[in-house]
Design brief:
Layout lengths: L2 H10 L9 H33 L9 H4 L4 E2 L1 H13 L3 H10 L2 H6 L5 E3 L16 E2 L5 E2 L2 E3 L7 H5 L3 E2 L7 E2 L2 H6 L4 H6 L10 H11 L8 E2 H15 L11
Antiparallel strand pairs: 1-8, 2-5, 3-4, 6-7
Helix pairs in contact: 2-4, 4-11, 5-11
Length: 247
Amino acid sequence: MGLRSRMLHQTDSTDGWASGRKGDACSRMKARVAELQLMFAELDAEIIRGARATGLTCRPMCGQCCEFPGIHLSLADAMPLAFELCRDHRGEDMLAALRAQSAADESRGGCPMYRPLTTDSKTTSAGTAPHGAADASGQAYRRGRCTAYGARPGLCRLFGFARSSDSPAVLLACQMLKEDFRDNLVLQRAGHDSLSAAPQMDAWQRRIAAVFPDLDARPQPIRTTIRQALELVLHAQGYASSGVAST
């Protein structure tokens, strides 16, 4: 089934998150997005509790995970972000930019919402300028900011602060964060049990996917996912006549 056919099925299904009328589709989508926003607030509180228990914290303005070429995201997890972009009248421009990228960029590019900073703190487009900072040991790392931080997906909130479902649990974080906290006194004192306070990645990803049960729960490259989420939101808002929902 092509993307346009899937969108029509997902927005016209009477037993899914949208009915045949576009007004109903948009209102049902808003309700599901609001449900996810409340879920994200609950998640944020759990992350804060876990961070206090473990002492984990990211380096200031570090954005290396945002630029990682292997980020995969589920469609449900991207819906609040897509909805906010469309509400703020940024959705169509972002969709056009994502559609204009090459297949290689779409499959291997980092998050399109991330903007790195140059060494003189001027914002640039992703990957176009050298930038960085150094920690206390002199190790360099890249700095930047998310341009939609409040609506960032659950995956972005969890990474660096979540644990795996393995026994014993493993911290799901970048190597740099693991190295920073290798000698963390809180972790040394509490041992692996300290991770029990951290949210479990798999459990939260299942909860997020369940809010939009008719959407494909399989994670895809983040640029593909955000593009498809924008197409769904703009279609539901009645922009199909402008060609936004075309394949």
